[in-house]
Amino acid sequence: MHHTAEKGVYVLAMQLQRPARLTVGHLGVFDFPRGYYLYVGSALGGFAGRINRHLKRKKKMRWHIDYLLEKADLLWIDLYGTDSHADECRLNASVACLPGAAVIAPHFGASDCKCDSHLHYFEELPPERPRL
Length: 132
Ligand SMILES: [Zn+2]
What we know:
Distance between the termini: 16 Å
Mean pLDDT: 94
Shape: globular
Number of domains: 1
Structural class: alpha+beta
Low-confidence stretches: none
Bound molecules: zinc ion
Number of strands: 6
Largest sheet: 4 strands, antiparallel
Strand content: 25-35%
């Protein structure tokens, strides 16, 4: 993790060891295949609090990602310093363009924007990191 900035947007990588049928809040029930997931989020209020929250196992479910992180293992988080909320969806578009990306749960983490989803599934973890 590079702490070159205090706030911005981020990519969180997860591995799901076994397929899981999960209820994602009001979004619905989805069958998540085993494999890798990249999630794009923003932490314009500060990285520290948001990352600590993602790492916490027991918490009140609030965001879509909270439901997936109950079952998936967090692999890494890449931080991209910015003040702009628009960079979250720009970074998301970059992740969606990585080879093999697929959407399992439409609108996941993307309730307030026009992206298909802020969660992207990969059978194999992409070797390259997305660029903002
Ligand atoms: Zn978006």
